[in-house]
Amino acid sequence: MRRFLSAVVLAVALGGSVAAAQQSIIDGWAWSTLVPSIAQTDILGTHLRELRNEQERRSTPPDVSRLGFTPSKARRSANLAAFVEKTRAADPNGAADLQRLFADGDIIERIGAAIAPVGLRTDNLADVYALWWITAWQATRGDNDTLGRDMYAAVRAQAARALNGAGGPARASDAGKQELAEALLVQTTLIDAAVEQAKGNPARMRQVRAAVAKSAQGMGLDMAAMEITGGGFVPNGKR
Hints:
By secondary structure, this protein is mainly α. It has one domain (5-235). Helix content is 62%, strand content 3%. A two-stranded antiparallel ribbon has the order 1-2. A hairpin with a 2-residue loop joins β1 (226-229) and β2. α2 crosses α7, α9 (125-139) packs parallel to α12 and α12 packs antiparallel against α13. The longest helix is centred in the last third of the chain and has 25 residues, at 174-198. The radius of gyration is 17 Å and the shape is globular. Residues 1-20 form the signal peptide. InterPro entries: DUF6683.
């Protein structure tokens, strides 16, 4: 999401925090530490294995409304504070940088404004999953260009089918949905910034690509086994 998410981090005066955030992605805390159990980490992997079913890809649009939630500013403050504390034990420097980032205005609102042009919102899990999925997949290719609205919409529909099929995320409370969404949004932004900062440094980019691919495995996703099209993600037969 170049020109979008990277700007959210790069526009704030955090000294060396972007480099620290990049190292945090490489060290692996950003996924395993932040994302709550509601994520049900096998759901997108299961969905990917079902993508060979052409009828499923052509089915009627999923009910995205079940995945929306009404965000609370108080819950957001609590969530961001919890992300910092969860990070502190594994990466004190990264935690301090996150704290400074979160202190400089409402980062979720900034992300919301950044992704609105491609038709995504921060208060719906389908939108947020789609954003994370695409950003992580691009990162494993060393890329963070902004794609067309049709691609984001197609992946949003795929994510909605997977989340609705899993049941738990759709049935979660507003608080549970918000916690998951904000964890994914923070990680997505750090991934995007890590890719942007690694450009021009092949060795560093290889580290970022490998780290994001490993994190995606935690969601049951083999990023090397898929490609993105105007109709969303499809298997590429490489695995």
